[in-house]
Every structure is written in structure tokens, then in C-alpha cells.
Design goal:
This protein has about 450 residues and is an all-alpha fold. It contains 17 helices and 3 strands. α3 runs antiparallel to α5.
Length: about 450
């Protein structure tokens, strides 16, 4: 008697559909929030563009400029939601029970990595395509669809979000704390320009007659937001008149049309390639990451001395220089160096407690202290929004201030729901939701401010 075992042939796949569905079901409110914000930034302004103009050419130019200005919103949205999406899809790595459950499944690390990455980027892509189609429908309602600038918006937004999602995913692989991800993410995005500022400030003190200069190209490339913003802002404008006459020179009776330069496409393409390289690095780190690293400040042992030295040196330089200007402005170089050494030593030996200020540590920090320390980090943003709103109030344009305030409140409520119900945050959900509301205000107000500055109305 012979026994035979019949088995189904195993099908291999690059991702796991169950994990994809799970991520979409859990994090769809993040996609809803993303789409809701974009509806305020692009489709609605298209419907309002050039409503009081008579000339068809001017209306078309205004619609074109509205879509072009939305690209600056794409930078902020990619920066913000690239981080939030990475925090969402990699949040299970920060909890011992969740990571143990996921890694016990009969799914390879590669399949899990691809599933979570496709889920995160896929949700953002679905939102972008929906906004693209809705914007095209709004343009069709105005009897003019500018497919070129709409396609450029979709392409550049996708490229930017690929890079920022990859960068945030790299930060997620480096730590075992969920709330340390945005801290690392912000530091990586701003470290180059901050170090450049500190070094130039010290050179002003040490070298007589030294004049500060603009950041070098390498510094700008290491500051992605600044580099992309500059590339998109470097437009090749032309002027169009009511009778359809086009001129590259300024025309008093004409209307300015902003046209994307090739630099914008090249810059975003380079960052997208870097994003693919970063995703490959994230995949490699994900393979090496231990499940027991959940809850650790640094997920890899070899990162701990690097983080300690980096915080010590950068904190010593920056805080020492700040103390020199704020408290000891007329002090000499010796006092400056003493301030930097003392604060550098403090940051070096207190690196882990400093990072713990941004994590959920209910047994150490009282709820009120945790809230105040977090919310104090974001109060520069309402200062900026109040200054911008003051300019529009001076113009009598209260519509922008009203819309931005409503967007702020709606964004706060939606973000708090996502942070509490999906990401399971504690008291930290409140200051982070405040930050989301203020960022949405800036996303709405800054394009309007840029448009007014270019038109000379402000």
C-alpha cells in the first residue's frame, strides 16, 4: 500500500493581500483627511479662480496659476502626510505585542515590508488621483482644462511623497518609539541648514569682517523642503493680454502666467531616485531589526553612540550659541565656548532623557507637563499664521482668514480622531493635532500670500 500526500502548490507573491486590506481598513481615516485637505487647496480654489474677470485669457491664466501655486501646498502635504503615513504603517513595530504577532505570521519580512509600503504609498496615490480627476472636473466646469499643469501637479506630488515617505520610513526603522519618528524626521530635514546657520554665526564671532552668505548647493540639497521649494518657485513666467497677445516681458495691461521650469522636474526626479534608494535601505534594516527593539529609543545598538554624540555636539553648539546671544550678548569668546561646552556635556549625558520628552512615559512625566512641553515646540506656527492673517485683514480680505480658521478647527478634530482612535496616542494627541491644524492654515495661507506678493497687492 502506498501513501501519497497531495498538497496545493504554494503561490509566491511580492506582497500579502491580507496585510494590505488590514492597513487600508485601519488607516483609511488618514486618507480621508488627506483628501479633505486637498479639496480645500486645489478643486475649490479652481472654482473660485477668475470669477470676476471678463477676458477668457485672463480666466485661463488664473486657473493655470491656481494649479501652479498648489504645488507649494504639495511640498507641505508631502512633508506632513509622508511622515503620518509612515507612522501609521510602521506603528506596529513600536509595540511588543503587535510586532510579535505580525512577525509570527507565515509571511516573510520582504512580503510584510512590501505590503506595508504599498499600502502607505497606495493610499496617497489614490488620494492624488482622486484630486486630479476632481480638479479636472472643476476645470471642465469652467470650460478650460489645463492638462499640462494638472499632469505636472500629479507627477511632482507623487515624486515628492515617494521621497518623504521613504525618509520617514527610515526614521521609523531607527527607533522603537512612535513619537520619536517625527522628531527624527524633522531633525533630518532641517539639520543641514541649522548647522550652516550655527557655523556662520560662530564665524561672525571668531572672524572680524566676516559676512554671512547664502547656503551652499550641498546644504540646499540636504534640506529637501528648501531645495524643492526653490526649484518650483524658479518659474519661467510670461505675460498674456486680454486679446491673447503673449510676451516674455512685463506688460502693464497683461496677466502673469507662471510656468514650471525644467529644474522642478529634475529636482523632484532626483529626490524620487533617492527615495527608492532609501526604501531599499529601509528594507535591509527591516530584515536586520530585532522584534525585541520595540520600545527602545534606538532600534539598533550601533546607532546609540551616534545619536548620543550627534545630540551632544549639535545641542552644545546650538544651545551654547543661543545662550550667548540671549543672555550673554556682550560676552567674549571664552564665555561663548564655556556655554557651548557646558550645554554640550548636558546634552551628551542626557541624550536619552531629552528624547524621552517626546515619548509616552506616563510613569515619569505628568500629563500636564507632557502637554506643555510638546505644545511649546509648535508655537512658532501660530505666530506665522497670525502675521499672515494680519496682512489679509489689512487688505480687507477676510475670506482667507475665515477659511483658514475653519480649516484649522476641522483639521484639529480630524487629526485628534486619527491620533487617538488609530494611532492610540495618549495626551500627546492634543498638541500634535494643534500642529496639524496650524500646518493646514499655513498650507492654505502661504499660496495666497505668494500670489498676493507676486501681484503686488500686499
Amino acid at each position: 500500500m502506498s501513501w501519497e500526500v497531495w498538497s496545493m502548490p504554494r503561490k509566491t507573491s511580492f506582497c500579502n493581500r491580507a496585510l494590505l486590506r488590514s492597513d487600508v481598513k485601519r488607516y483609511w481615516p488618514l486618507l480621508f483627511l488627506y483628501v479633505a485637505v486637498w479639496v480645500m487647496i486645489l478643486p475649490l480654489p479652481i472654482l473660485q479662480a477668475g470669477r470676476w474677470m471678463v477676458s477668457v485669457e485672463q480666466i485661463q491664466a488664473e486657473i493655470h496659476n491656481t494649479i501652479y501655486n498648489a504645488l507649494f501646498g504639495s511640498i507641505v502635504m508631502a512633508l506632513l502626510f509622508g511622515c503620518l503615513t509612515a507612522m501609521a504603517v510602521w506603528s506596529y513595530l513600536m509595540t511588543t505585542r503587535a510586532v510579535g504577532l505580525l512577525h509570527a505570521l507565515p509571511v516573510t519580512r520582504t512580503e510584510q515590508f512590501l505590503s506595508h509600503s504599498i499600502a502607505g504609498l497606495g493610499m496617497l496615490t489614490v488620494g492624488n488621483v482622486f484630486i486630479f480627476l476632481l480638479s479636472a472636473a472643476c476645470c471642465a466646469g469652467r470650460s478650460y482644462v489645463d492638462w499640462a499643469i494638472l499632469g505636472a501637479w500629479l507627477l511632482l506630488t507623487e515624486l515628492m511623497e515617494l521621497f518623504f515617505f521613504a525618509l520617514a520610513s527610515l526614521c521609523a526603522m531607527a527607533t522603537g518609539w512612535l513619537l520619536a519618528i517625527p522628531v527624527l524626521y524633522g531633525a533630518v530635514n532641517a539639520i543641514a541648514i541649522l548647522l550652516h546657520t550655527v557655523v556662520q554665526a560662530m564665524a561672525n564671532i571668531f572672524y572680524y569682517g566676516y559676512y554671512t552668505t547664502g547656503p551652499a548647493k550641498a546644504v540646499m540639497w540636504l534640506t529637501p523642503v528648501g531645495r524643492i521649494w526653490t526649484a518650483i518657485g524658479h518659474d519661467t513666467s510670461y505675460w498674456i493680454t486680454a486679446d491673447g497677445r503673449v510676451s516674455p516681458e512685463y506688460l502693464e495691461e497683461g496677466w502673469r502666467v507662471s510656468h514650471l521650469s525644467p529644474t522642478a522636474y529634475t529636482t523632484c526626479a532626483i529626490y524620487a531616485v533617492v527615495g527608492l534608494v532609501l526604501l531599499a535601505l529601509v528594507w535591509w534594516l527591516y530584515q536586520k531589526r530585532s522584534s525585541e527593539s520595540a520600545g527602545d529609543a534606538m532600534a539598533f545598538r550601533w546607532l546609540r553612540p551616534i545619536a548620543r554624540w550627534s545630540i551632544g555636539l549639535c545641542g552644545g553648539w546650538g544651545l551654547g550659541l543661543f545662550l550667548h546671544y540671549a543672555v550673554l550678548y556682550n560676552s567674549n569668546l571664552t564665555q561663548l565656548l564655556i556655554c557651548q561646552v557646558i550645554l554640550g556635556v548636558i546634552c551628551f549625558f542626557a541624550a536619552e532623557p531629552i528624547i524621552r520628552l517626546f515619548a509616552t512615559q506616563t510613569e515619569v512625566v505628568e500629563l500636564g507637563v507632557r502637554f506643555l512641553k510638546l505644545v511649546s515646540l509648535f508655537y512658532l506656527m501660530p505666530a506665522l499664521t497670525n502675521g499672515i492673517q494680519g496682512g489679509f485683514r489689512g487688505l480687507g480680505d477676510l475670506k482667507i482668514t475665515l477659511n483658514s480658521s475653519m480649516l484649522n478647527m476641522a483639521g484639529r478634530v480630524a487629526a485628534a480622531a486619527v491620533f487617538v482612535l488609530i494611532l492610540h496616542m495618549d495626551i500627546e494627541a492634543l498638541p500634535y493635532s494643534y500642529a496639524v491644524g496650524w500646518i493646514l492654515m499655513l498650507v492654505y495661507e502661504v499660496p495666497a500670500l505668494v500670489r498676493c506678493l507676486r501681484d503686488g497687492t500686499l
